[in-house]
Amino acid sequence: MGKLPSPAASFGAGRRAVRVTVAAAAAFYPAAHLLDQPVVALYALFTPIAFGILSPLPGGGRHRAGTVLRVAPGAAALVCLGTALAGAAWSAAAGMLLVGFALVLSASCAPRLAGVVPGLQLCYILACFPPYAPDTLPERLAGLALGAASLLLCELLLFAQPRHRPYRGRTADALDVAARAAGLLARADSVPPSLAARLAAAGRDLRFSQQSPGTGPTGAGPRDRALAQAASATRRLLDQLAVLTLLPAPPADTASLTLLRGIAATCADTAAELRGERPAAGPELVEEMTAQFVAERGRPLERNAGPVHALLRRRSTLLTVAMSAVTARTAAALASGARRSVPGPPHEQFWYAGLPVPLLWLVRIRGNLTPRSVVFQNAVRTALGLALARLVAGTLDLSHGFWVLLSVLTLARTTAGATWSTVRSAAVGTLVGAVAAGALLIGAGDATVVYECLLVPTMLVAFSVGPVGGPAWAQGLFTLVVSTAFAQISPVTWRLEEARLVDVLTGSAVGLVCGLLAWPTGARSEMRRSAGELFRVAAPLVRATARAATGQAPASRPSGATEPFWPVLHRLRIAEAAYAQYRTESVPGTSDGGLDWLAALNYGSRVLVGAYWLPSSEGTPDLPPALLRWADEAADAVASGSLTAAGSPEAGVRVRLAPLPAGAVSGAAPDALSVLIDVEVWLGALAADLATATGARGTPSADRS
Questions:
Q1: What pTM was estimated for this model as a whole?
Q2: Which of 191, 209, 320, 626 has the most CB within a 10 Å radius?
Q3: Spatial distance between the Cα atoms of 487 and 451, rounded to a whole number of angstroms
Q4: In 216-253, alpha helices (H)
Q5: How far is it, in rounded angstroms, from Cα 431 to Cα 445?
């Protein structure tokens, strides 16, 4: 049955077990013994289990209580729907198919909904099984309300942990780090060697993989999108500042020092706004300073400014820092509600601003309605598994058939291998639990007081050990829980354990069949395919952006509905979802042949950022033909490398960019050369991302902006 959980691992589960046990007992005992209402007692027992164990709610006590309060109406609606469709196996299965698909797909739009989907599904499962008794609907709803109210109070009063540090607070802390780093660079003092490491650590702290489940801004609404974008821009800002610390500072560069001071002030103001410490202010200051910096860097350079190429390269890197600061500032204003629209550039990045939430939900759902989306795959797999299980349970007329669906719900995984491993453990645990529960039922007989005394300690142990001990412990101990509970509702014999064992094995078989037939490899193969598609659709945008930035094409900024921008954004979102699931499936010690999927996502994001910022609507200074030819060839090299990466080459992708023609550079005007250096820095960073993503070795380092 596996190893017992360590005390450290079971501490959090133990506190949750106490809350759920007290909530379930406080609702179950009065309904079963004082009111003599078995239907009310059944729903009062399973509601805290559904939203406390099956769907462990994230956050502090108030946050969890608020989630229970919000989800209760939806749970009641599903109980009503299940009760109405329970008359026939086919109608109940059809309802299960619809409910399962809709809940999983909708969960991609709201992090709170994602956490409670299993609990909501259980509400429908309980109600859609015989007996078909619409007249008991009031009792079912009363039991649901009793259980939800009991759980809500326990979440508020028992071990109500303080709230997790909110994601906007983490973003504010990271911006404070950026402000201090920019301030150090602005003073032109010697930069501490540890500064780059601190910047990298602050960026890692913003990754969604570092957050507690359900606490990241993953929703489809405008504020969640804006906060996620502010965090993404902040991570880029930190990475770009780290690059800047490694570049030699010129002896006299007043324009750069002035812009660095503006960036530091903007980062500090944005952090304060995210914490709600001061009124929101627009990003106009840093935008004006950036525009002034762009104008000044095109003037003739001072004689003592050092090598021209090195100076312009540093200024170009600083410009990317400023652009990230503008993006973070604007997104933070949207996230805090201080803005509802972005009238000027870069408004294309914030296409969602001002749109109604239902429309944004529709955009998110429509984007996932493709077989290449892991969200769509999980929705189909879950819905088919639950619907098939309901059909099998109804056709075979299995006693307590809802255990079949409960097994599919709790044991199915996103890969066939993981499902098989879980099913094997669960079968062993259920068998052992059934033997123990059968012995208890035979020994105690009709002595209800024995079951009354055993239910609370059994729940406490099951809910403490089961979630951290693995499926064997969870299934075995839960078998004891349902046995001691059902024995108080109606007369039972040892055959109850026989029925549970048969139901669990049936549900396991259904889940395993669905796992084998529907995307059995999970996100591993989908991650490779999604990254390949991202590389493929990004290639045309790389070429188009480089040509627009150097004045060889119309400098129109992309929007959410134009080609070739939209395919890149769409494929990036699909790949990000696949990566999030891939992280949950990854097994320590395994590898993907040197492939770095996070670098692939960074590549797609960097392509989009360049498409937003590099083209200038104010016109591009004339560049000599030799430099234009270099820009075309460099962009073609990166685009070709992107297409090669789409095929997952074993040797990796090494894009070697030719140096700028020395003769043409010396004869180019500073304003024209500045634009070209911007393109060079961007293409060099893309080449480095391609090399990292595909596991290439020996590639020259490039700025990681």
A1: 0.86
A2: 320
A3: 7
A4: 222-246
A5: 21
